[in-house]
């Protein structure tokens, strides 16, 4: 139904083999049969090992969009049958997402563009004078928006993280604690529920950046004991352009609208004096992203407990294989904050002795048809901290300044992982050569 064979921008196949079989997993995603030509002329199935940046689109999301498009009409703006239909679809999507993220009575779901947008919206709504506690290793989306930030140094262990929040709240008083559930650099899981428990003792609120966690397990405000959660549709197997801020309504209802314009108003006088509306619409001025919201809700509805259990098994199997494979490649040095045994999702960052990470990523792409990310992963302080901890003996030529990140998800196969490990073994054994194009500054 959704032909995805070779992207028109990619080299066209002349000798297409049947796509490599993929093991069954409970969330079908598109793009498994995309092939790319590599430097020796072969066409290889594209191994997308950059799922943490953007996950492939789930078939259920594509189907929901395909069903919706013929009824395309205005949302919250029209009296016609299709407008009413689209308005209903948008609000149903909101209700589905609210259930999915464990909203409590009185919580709100605001549709945003992505997690960055959601965190900037919350930063805008934090009452003036309130401090925001974060760790300096947060993703930039959760590091930079806060106006009055107290940035805690990186903890050595999860217990240190909880204790640091406790000390800071005791010293500075109630605030908002902004913490990421799962690192986009190491995949390590942070003790979010424990931090939320400590925060509650001091009357502080917690926002959980679930941009990464959301793609690897259920996210529930109620279960985490958090006040707000943010996530991005494009990391949760839905298309680009829809994200979520969910949580307590009071700060959002008291804040000035995030965007000023149509849809957020109750009444506007001739002199443009405005009475703003309350609820999610207050911060969603302009015509909303109906398609994005519906697609995201379709994924949320598909991610039942059984589906998550299947996905977790699938990812753990691949992660174990990846761990074992990387351990056997001489010259690969992995990055971790809490240590190798700490629970984590399907993300591994590493450096390769004697090679710039951009060069490793380029060779994986050009010679092996594997997509990974290199750079500092929009978490410069954390990644630099982890790179500085790489023992000098492990990278004798020069200290590494960027890393390679591999990330897996629903569309990843055993063949992808095995191909990566074999390719890295080949690359690490024959360093040399330099990359001219680097994404290291990101
Ligand atoms: N937080 C984390 C932990 C992330 O990994 C990302 C994306 N890499 C973001 C926030 C920002 O997400 P987006 O780019 O979708 O706004």
Structure description:
This protein is 33% helix and 16% strand. The two termini are 36 Å apart. It is built from twelve helices and 17 strands. Helix 4 runs parallel beside helix 5. It is globular and about 70 Å long. It folds into two domains: 170 residues, Alpha-Beta Complex (Aspartate Aminotransferase, domain 1), CATH 3.90.1150; 243 residues, 3-Layer(aba) Sandwich (Aspartate Aminotransferase, domain 2), CATH 3.40.640.10. It is of the alpha/beta class and 442 residues long. Helix 5 links the parallel strand 7 and strand 8. The chain has a seven-stranded mixed sheet with strand order 4-10-9-8-7-5-6, with helices on both faces. It has a four-stranded antiparallel sheet with strand order 13-14-17-16, covered by helices on one side. Bound molecules: 4'-deoxy-4'-aminopyridoxal-5'-phosphate. 4'-deoxy-4'-aminopyridoxal-5'-phosphate binds next to helix 3.
How is this structure best summarized?
This protein is of the alpha/beta class. It contains 12 helices and 17 strands. The protein binds 4'-deoxy-4'-aminopyridoxal-5'-phosphate (PMP).
What keywords describe this structure?
442 residues, globular, alpha/beta, 2 domains, disordered N terminus, Aspartate Aminotransferase, domain 2, Aspartate Aminotransferase, domain 1, binds 4'-deoxy-4'-aminopyridoxal-5'-phosphate
Q: Could you give the distance between the termini? A: 36 Å
Classified by CATH, the class of the largest domain is Alpha Beta
Helix content: 25-40%
Which series of helices and strands comes N to C?
EEEHHEHEEHEHEHEEHEEHHEEHEEHEH
Instruction: List the total number of helices.
Output: 12
Order of the strands making up the biggest sheet: 4-10-9-8-7-5-6
Gross morphology: globular
Note the quaternary state here. single chain
């Amino acid at each position: 139904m959704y032909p995805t064979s070779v992207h028109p921008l990619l080299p066209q196949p002349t000798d297409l083999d049947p796509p490599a079989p993929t093991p069954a997993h409970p969330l079908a995603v598109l793009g498994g049969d995309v092939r790319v030509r590599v430097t020796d002329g072969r066409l290889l199935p594209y191994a997308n090992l950059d799922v943490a940046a953007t996950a492939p689109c789930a078939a259920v999301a594509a189907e929901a969009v395909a069903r919706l498009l013929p009824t395309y009409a205005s949302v919250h703006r029209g009296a016609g049958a299709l407008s009413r239909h689209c308005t209903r679809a948008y609000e149903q999507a909101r209700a589905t997402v609210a259930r999915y993220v464990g909203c409590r009575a009185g919580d709100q779901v605001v549709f945003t563009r992505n997690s960055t947008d959601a965190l900037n919206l919350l930063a805008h709504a934090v009452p003036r004078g309130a401090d925001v506690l974060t760790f300096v290793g947060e993703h930039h989306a959760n590091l930079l928006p806060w106006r009055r930030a107290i940035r805690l140094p990186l903890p050595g262990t999860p217990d240190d993280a909880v204790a640091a929040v406790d000390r800071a709240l005791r010293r500075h008083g109630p605030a908002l604690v902004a913490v990421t559930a799962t690192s986009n650099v190491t995949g390590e899981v942070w003790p979010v529920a424990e931090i939320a428990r400590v925060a509650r003792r001091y009357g502080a609120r917690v926002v959980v950046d679930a941009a990464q966690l959301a793609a690897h397990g259920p996210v529930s405000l109620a279960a985490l004991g958090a006040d707000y959660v943010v996530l991005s549709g494009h990391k949760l197997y839905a298309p680009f352009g829809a994200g979520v801020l969910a949580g307590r309504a009071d700060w959002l209802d008291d804040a000035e609208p995030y965007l000023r314009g149509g849809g957020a108003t109750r009444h506007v006088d001739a002199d443009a004096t405005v009475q703003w509306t309350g609820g999610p619409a207050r911060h969603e001025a302009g015509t909303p992203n109906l398609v994005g919201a519906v697609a995201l809700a379709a994924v949320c509805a598909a991610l039942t407990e059984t589906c998550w259990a299947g996905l977790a098994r699938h990812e753990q199997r691949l992660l174990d294989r990846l761990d074992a494979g990387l351990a056997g490649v001489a010259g690969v040095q992995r990055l971790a904050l809490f240590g190798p045994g700490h629970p984590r999702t399907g993300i591994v960052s590493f450096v390769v002795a004697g090679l710039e990470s951009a060069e490793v990523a380029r060779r994986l792409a050009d010679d092996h048809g594997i997509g990974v990310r290199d750079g500092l992963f929009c978490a410069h302080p954390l990644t630099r901290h982890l790179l500085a901890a790489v023992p000098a003996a492990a990278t004798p030529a020069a200290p590494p300044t960027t890393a390679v990140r591999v990330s897996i998800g629903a569309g990843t196969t055993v063949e992808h992982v095995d191909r990566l490990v074999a390719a890295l073994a080949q690359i690490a054994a024959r360093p040399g050569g330099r990359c001219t194009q680097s994404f290291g500054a990101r």
